[in-house]
Structures are given as structure tokens and as C-alpha cells.
Design a protein that fits this description.
Shape: extended
Largest sheet: 4 strands, antiparallel
Number of strands: 15
Oligomer: single chain
Helix content: 25-40%
Distance between the termini: 106 Å
Strand order of the largest sheet: 4-5-6-7
Order of helices and strands: HHHEHHEEEEEEEHEEEEHHHHEHHHEHE
Structural class: alpha+beta
Number of helices: 14
Length: about 550
Amino acid sequence: MAAAEGQAVPEITVGKESPGRTHGSRILTEWKRERVARQLAPIRQTRKFEAAAINRLTSSWLTSTASIDRELRGDLDKLRARSRDMCRNNEYAKKFLRMVRTNVVGPHGFTLQLQVLNSDGSADKLANDAIEAAFKKWGRKGICEVSGQYSFADVQRVLIGAAARDGEFLVRKVRGEAAGNVFGFALQILDIDRLDTRLNIAPAGNRNAVVMGVEMDAYRRPVAYWIFKSHPNGFHGSARERERVPASDIIHAFLPDELEQPRGIPWMHAAMRRLHDLGGYREAAIIAARIGAAQMGVITSPEGTADAIKDGEDAEGVPEIEAEPGTFPVLPEGYDMTPFNPTYPHQQYEMFNKACLRGIGSGFGVSYHGLANDLEGVSFSSIRSGVLEERDEWMVLQNWFDSSLMAPVTDAMLEMSILSGAVIQAGGSALPVAKLDKFLVYSWQGRRWPWVDPKKDMEASLLAINNGLSSPQRVAAAMGMDIEDVLNELKKFQEMLETKGVVLGTDTSPPNEDVKTINEKRAELGLDDIDGGDAIFMPSSEIPALEKTP
């Protein structure tokens, strides 16, 4: 090690006798030289990341630099199986699944809004109404899905639930006569288990790579899917036979967590271990509470036998005594009973349970009070702040679901239905096939949520409209409605009122000239208004006597 600039290391002669000194050890001399050099050397600072340090505190922090393909190949099937087990048997996992279905899709599904325009920029009402009517008819149960079990809203709920539970969903587009409807298009929902995780083929020559059942080109763009003809763990003999389906006929969607990720990961994966451990903890606490409530104990005899008082034996021949809550056996002379009275669950049980559920809620991306059904200690401001953040997350999922399922289904359905001549305008003519691109202008509106205090929210919206900061269209969209549908409904409502001869919004009581306001009475007397002119109507006879002050 070098000494500091301007300082010299004292010379220590090795192997020779220095003047005035006796010959010393060679090892000791070298050690002295290094110690002096270290003392004189400047302090060096090294750049490093603390998170990358390896010491006794981080020795158990195991990491991997393997590709996402390699990690998913070994773990994906187990992750999916455990996620499905939790959604069947764990109440919090099942609640999360319901929250996803309810908040992303909602009770009525996404709302289609056609935006087809004429050449002059005006709305093509005939085309918009015809397409919306056709899509509504196609979305009925028994038409849009080949098995006949689902409506299009049901399909949305099933697939968003599959995405949350399995991390991905798989849908096949069925065209032509096989669709079984006049539109020539339907959907087939496939279990993601049909996409074989163990099918992996390396690229060679003109052959594409196959990664966990997905065939990809050199840019990792899916070009085909190798799908089992039936469920691989089903009852049919052809369960292990695969077919190659072009990517244009398949909708395979997932939320990627890693770059170059070929398959989806269950959304609960980051919190599944903690949720499983919490389930075991709660089960042990419940069993301990049951044991404590039963007042159990151990009976001993002087000779070490229990033949005199046993009621039977278990499967292993151990003597047993039947006991009921609130009863105690009378023991023979010489027998003793040692009570077993566990004091669990202790006072920290509730606090520990809440702390775990807060972490699980963070892993699921939902609020604690929504996941745990716990509104204890929640104020209006705190719940509003939490709801805002959570609703933003739901809208992110809605946008992903829109681009992943709704858009490709709408494009394919409109293409096949217009080619089939199944979209009929009000005049009886079908939409022209030559203008197909013109008709593919639409948007899907996801569900929205009412506020805890809707009056304040509505007042804020009206204030924004009156000050030119918003529009009725935007406000209606924020409420999950189409402004055109709202106006049409209002028009129909007005027509119904006119037909029935009903007039709303007016005072239908007979005129009463004797009715005056307090302020009118005060004006007659030359007095000031009350509270800036508040109008309080009452008969003149009931107005208190008011005298004009000098």
C-alpha cells in the first residue's frame, strides 16, 4: 500500500543488522512495514450499494439472475394451483376475487359507445344505432359464446376473474358457421391449463421458438398457440393431443410484471405465502379457543392405569373419556385430574391479524377495510382518500381489460357481422362492407362508483360545468353513462309526460292571495329583510305582529 504524498515510509532493513540494533524476525519486520504504510495511507471511499452487500445480515437473502422464462417454467403451474386452492378455500382470497369482478366489470358490464361520423363531421346516427343494437343482440346469453352458458357480461366477469386467479386468460375466436349465430362470430372460453407450460422448443433454422406453449418469432411476437384439444387432466382420452392455433384466432392476455414475459402470473402471488401462514395461525387460534372452552384435562391414577373410568379407546388403543361442556366426571378415590386450560388466543391476536391483512391488502392492491370488511375507526376523510387511490387502480385494470379483450372482440365481431349482413339500419338496409373501417370507431365505458356524499360531488360537477372546466359529456362518462343515452331517455320521458298530461316542476296548489312572506310584510312596514331576503311563505294571519320602529 502506498504512503501519503510527501511522507516517506521509514526504511527497515530486512536480513541485515541496523546500526545500534540487533537482528530481528523477518515476519515481524514485514508486519511493521505494512502497519506503518496503512497508517500513512489516505482513507479511500468505495462506491457501493448497501442492498448488494453480502454479510451475516444478508447471507439468507437468496437471489437469482435467471430469465423470466426459466423461472416461470418451473413455478407457474404450482403458483396457479395454489392460487386456485386459495380462491376455493380462503375467505380473503375469495373476497379479493369478488372485488375484482365487481369493480372492474360491475353489475352490467362495459358499455359500448359508437362514435361513427359522417363526412361533414356530424354523428352518423343510423349507423351508430344499428351497430349498438346488433352488439346488444349478439351479447345475449346463448349467442356470443359457443357453449350457450354465458352472456357477454358473464364472459367479462369470468375472464377478469381468471386473470386475477390464474394471471392470464385464453379465448378462442370462432368464425363462420361454427359460431352458430347469424353474426358469424362467437367466443370459446378456454381453461389456461390447455396451454402446455412444459412444451418448450428451441429455435432452429426456419423453426420458431415455443416457450411454454406459445410459439414466437425472433421478436418474441406470438404467432401461434399449441393448445390441448381437451383439458389435460380431464376424462377424455385425447387430453394430451395438441393443435396449433394461429395467434389471429386466440386472445391470450395477462398483465406483465417482467420484461419479455411470455405467460401471466397470478395477481395474488406476492401475498399468497403470508395469506397461507395467516390461515394456519387463525386455525390454530380457533382450535386453541375450542380446547379452552371445553375445559379439558388429563386424568392420572396411582397405578398408572385408567381401566376403571375409561369410556372407550381411540384407533390407537389410547383410553378416552367422553366429556360434555359444563360437566365434570366424578373420579374414583386415588385418581387425580390436571386441567388443561390454554389462554390462547391472547390479547394481541386482533392486532396481529390486522397487521397481516394490511400487508396482504398491499400485495393484492386493495384497501384493508375493503378486503377485511372492517370499517372500525375509519373516518370520512380517511376512507375517501383510500377509496380514491383504490379506484384509480380499478380504472387502470379497466383500461387494460378494454385493450386486451373488449377491443379485439369488438373488431372481430363487427367485421364478421357486417360481412354477414347482420347489422341492419332503421331503413332496412345492411351496413355496406366497403365502409367497414368507418364503422370501427367506438369506445367502451367501464363502470363508475357513487361517492359516499353524492350531493357534494354533484355540486362540484355542476360548478365545473358552469365555469367551463368540464362538460356534461365528461361528467356522464365519469358516472359510467353515455350522454346520448341520457338525452334520449329524457326525451322519451318528456313525451310520456305530454301523453299523460302530467306537468312536473310547478306548484299545483290553488292560488291564495292571502299568502305572503315575512319579508313582504316587513317591506310594507319599511323594515329590513331577514337573512338577505329568505322567502318563507305563510298566511298573513300567522305572521307575527311587526311594528315599524321610529
